[in-house]
């Protein structure tokens, strides 16, 4: 049988000399001569060779590179350097091996025996030549790369090259099952095969291997009835092995093809099956991965969508409550004003009962006025821009304590404020927090002989700083602790402790805007403690409006 040789040589005379020398030696050779690196690489990529002859270098391309490229493409292929001064250029360690030789052009008479020797070294054991150590190495490399692959195109790319190299074949295809069709999705071959085409499962060999869940090993395709001969006639293929991907319910197949009649060895079939198994695992892993990725993406999109909707809704609600509160104030002012006029004009004629009725009207109107003002204040807080700065809570607490004591000089109270409690936050808003918590503490200790009000800080089990305002006042029923922060929720009768029930709702909004949490602990008549945290606070670039 003709030997196919690739010869890298830029001197035409030397090419001719080699050709005649080999013919004289009785070697029937088909020699493809190339004179540059790119031409050499292209030839390697597209054809199959039994051996490579190479000059030690051609302009712009070194013989060692040629050696590495040849070994990468055809592991173990005989490689003979034929150069003016053989041996001057030390061979690359990665590419030496039994089938490598170096000759000087002056000793061309040795070329025939050297080539026969190199082919002989490699030929007796086709398994060792094609699939022994290099095959195993390719398999290991392919498995490693497959384990990192995250999508089908990457997997197909790895497999089509690996399958071909693994068994030193002239072509490989990656076939995917598409319902009752076989889709030839990828290929790597010396000549075109069927990339992009679909064949019925029943009418092609990949379909046969998937349906029968076993490898099809065909030494001569034209003697096998399972092969659709017409589809193969335009191709170079003489022999093939088709291995299903996944034995249970195959999802595809890997085909390898030879241009010369080739009886695949048991070891080659085993290597291909191992590659098919790894491919199946890689496809399943990629599937899980892409499902996960899709779910995460879907959820993220969903959350984003919900946030946007909520934001819009919140803005609408804020705008609505602001305008309602705003518009409600003017009729109230009218009612209050005319009730006053009536009270004054009718002083003489009003009896006690009717005067009380009128007074009730004005008290209720004023309370409603206060409620509306507080509501307006709350909506302003949500809309106000945040200006981050260092805020001294201790200072704010002392100022609040001072004002509270001044408002009722007769009350006995003890204020305990830890020193230098500073936080990052908006000064104006943090003042509202401290004032509200302190004034609640002041209000709900009003029935105590000696009020005790404390501002301090501690650390929670997770190591976060927690600030607190504690008092020894009336306390509240802890079952209702979660209600405290809703607007207009009051746990005590208005007759005992007056207020509008908006203070803590405001405080909670401010704390949330600072990335923190607020909660309370208490028991009836045992005082109350309000705790809060402040998150990693970075003010937004644009004020919320
Ligand atoms: N220190 C406290 N001790 C006991 N109960 C408290 C304390 N602070 C708040 N509460 C309870 O929580 C309710 C809500 O408090 P919040 O500050 O929101 O409203 P308010 O003080 O009643 O009115 P406003 O602060 O709007 O004038 C209070 O009515 C009270 O029942
Ligand atoms: Mg209050």
CATH architecture of the largest domain: 2-Layer Sandwich
* Estimated radius of gyration: 44 Å
Count of DSSP-assigned helices: 14
**Helical coverage, percent range:** 40-55%
Structural class: alpha/beta
**CATH homologous superfamily heading of the largest domain:** Histidine kinase-like ATPase, C-terminal domain
Number of domains: 3
Tell the overall outline.
Answer: elongated
Main pleated-sheet profile: 6 strands, antiparallel
* Sequence of strands across the biggest β-sheet: 10-9-8-13-12-11
CATH class category label of the largest domain: Alpha Beta
Q: What fraction of residues sit in β-strands?
A: 15-25%
Distinct ligands, ions and cofactors found in the model: adenosine-5'-triphosphate, magnesium ion
Average pLDDT for all residues: 87
Number of strands: 20
- List low-pLDDT spans: 121-132, 537-545
- Please give the alpha-carbon distance between the first and last residues: 86 Å
CATH topology type of the largest domain: Heat Shock Protein 90
> Oligomeric state of the chains?
single chain
Give a short synopsis of this structure.
The chain is of the alpha/beta class and 545 residues long. The chain has 14 helices and 20 strands.
Describe the protein's topology.
Layout: E1 3-8, H1 12-24, E2 29-34, H2 37-46, E3 51-54, E4 57-58, E5 61-62, H3 63-73, E6 79-83, E7 100-104, H4 111-122, H5 126-131, H6 133-148, H7 152-166, E8 171-178, E9 181-189, E10 198-200, H8 205-211, E11 216-218, H9 229-232, E12 239-245, E13 252-258, H10 266-345, H11 352-383, E14 388-392, H12 393-407, E15 413-417, E16 422-426, H13 427-444, E17 451-459, E18 465-471, H14 503-513, E19 518-522, E20 528-532
Parallel strand pairs: 1-2, 1-3, 3-6, 6-7, 15-17
Antiparallel strand pairs: 4-5, 8-9, 8-13, 9-10, 11-12, 12-13, 14-16, 17-18, 18-20, 19-20
The structure holds adenosine-5'-triphosphate and magnesium ion (MG).
Adenosine-5'-triphosphate (ATP) binds at residues 374, 436, 440-441, 444, 471, 473-476, 484, 489-492, 499-505, 528.
């Amino acid at each position: 049988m003709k030997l196919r040789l690739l010869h890298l040589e830029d001197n035409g005379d030397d090419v001719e000399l080699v050709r005649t020398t080999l013919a004289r030696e009785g070697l029937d050779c088909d020699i493809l001569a190339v004179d540059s690196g790119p031409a050499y690489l292209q030839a390697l990529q597209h054809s199959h060779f039994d051996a490579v002859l190479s000059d030690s270098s051609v302009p712009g391309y070194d013989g060692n590179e040629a050696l590495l490229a040849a070994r990468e493409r055809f592991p173990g292929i005989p490689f003979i350097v034929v150069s003016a001064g053989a041996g001057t250029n030390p061979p690359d360690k990665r590419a030496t091996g039994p089938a490598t030789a170096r000759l000087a052009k002056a000793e061309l008479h040795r070329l025939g025996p050297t080539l026969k020797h190199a082919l002989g070294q490699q030929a007796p054991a086709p398994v060792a030549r094609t699939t022994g150590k290099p095959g195993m190495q390719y398999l290991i490399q392919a498995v490693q790369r497959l384990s990192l692959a995250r999508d089908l195109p990457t997997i197909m790319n790895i497999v089509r090259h690996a399958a071909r190299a693994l068994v030193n074949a002239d072509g490989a295809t990656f076939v995917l099952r598409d319902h009752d069709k076989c889709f030839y999705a990828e290929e790597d071959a010396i000549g075109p095969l069927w990339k992009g085409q679909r064949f019925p499962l029943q009418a092609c060999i990949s379909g046969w291997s998937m349906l029968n869940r076993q490898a099809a090993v065909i030494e001569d395709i034209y003697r096998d009835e399972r092969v659709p001969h017409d589809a193969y006639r335009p191709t170079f293929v003489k022999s093939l092995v088709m291995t299903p991907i996944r034995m249970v319910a195959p999802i595809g197949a890997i085909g390898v093809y030879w241009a010369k009649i080739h009886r695949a060895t048991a070891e080659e079939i085993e290597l291909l099956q191992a590659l098919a198994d790894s491919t199946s695992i890689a496809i399943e892993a990629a599937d899980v991965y892409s499902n996960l990725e899709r779910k995460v993406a879907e959820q993220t999109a969903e959350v984003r969508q919900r946030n946007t909707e909520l934001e819009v809704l919140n803005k609408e609600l804020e705008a609505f409550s602001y305008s309602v509160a705003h518009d409600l104030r003017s009729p109230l002012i009218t009612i209050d004003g005319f009730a006053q006029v009536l009270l004054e004009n009718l002083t003489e004629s009003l009896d006690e009962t009717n005067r009380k009725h009128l007074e009730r009207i004005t008290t209720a109107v004023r309370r409603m006025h206060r409620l509306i003002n507080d509501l307006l204040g709350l909506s302003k807080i949500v809309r106000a821009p945040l200006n981050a700065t260092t805020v001294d809570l201790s200072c704010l607490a002392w100022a609040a304590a001072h004002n509270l004591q001044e408002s009722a000089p007769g009350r006995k109270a003890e204020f305990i404020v830890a020193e230098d409690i500073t936080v990052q936050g908006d000064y104006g808003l943090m003042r509202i927090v401290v004032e509200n918590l302190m004034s609640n503490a002041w209000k709900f200790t009003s029935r105590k002989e000696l009020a005790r009000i404390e501002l301090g800080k501690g650390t929670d089990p997770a190591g976060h700083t927690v600030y607190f305002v504690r008092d020894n006042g009336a306390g509240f029923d802890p079952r209702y602790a979660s209600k405290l922060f809703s607007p207009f929720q009051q746990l005590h009768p208005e007759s005992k402790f007056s207020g509008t029930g908006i203070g803590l709702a405001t405080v909670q909004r401010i704390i949330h805007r600072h990335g923190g949490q607020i909660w309370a602990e208490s028991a009836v008549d045992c005082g109350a403690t309000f705790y809060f945290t402040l998150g990693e606070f970075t003010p937004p670039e644009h004020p919320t409006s």
